[in-house]
Amino acid sequence: MTTFKTVTARKRHVCDYCYKPIEKGENYQRQKGFYDGEFYELKQCLRCVEVIEFLHRVEWQEEFHNFNDDFLDYGYLRCPECNSSVFRFENIGKDTADYKCEECGSAGKMDISLEAVKLTVEVHK
Question: 60, 71 in Cβ contact below 8 A?
């Protein structure tokens, strides 16, 4: 059985999906359960919770492990300069993240808000 509970951080945590810091006093979702007989506990920032719930509603069938490795690997977010999906995020904030493309070397800020994810998924349907 898996449980999901929205709680308020009593200390600083890190989102297990996007690696954004969850600051003291910020709400986040704590997920606990068993997978393949092993106990696990995950912490998710509320933006990642919204993004994952949206993707499951549009028939996303994959399990998420983290934002960089899963969402980017499917090519939904692309470099605005060369259209490559080979890049990584750093300094992930509530709705933006710094990115650096491994193909063309361009870098900048990218919108990773729920609204941006919705638009990106619609384009790739």
Answer: no
**Residue ranges of domains in the chain, CATH in brackets:** 3-124 (3.30.1740)
DSSP helix, strand, coil percent of the chain (3-state; round to 5) = 25, 35, 40
pTM: 0.61
Q: State the residue for tokens 């890049």.
A: 87
Spatial distance between the Cα atoms of 86 and 94, rounded to a whole number of angstroms: 22
- 77 to 6, 7, 41, 106, 110: CA distances (angstroms): 28, 30, 27, 14, 9
pLDDT attached to residue 28: 96
Local structure of 71: helix, strand or coil: helix
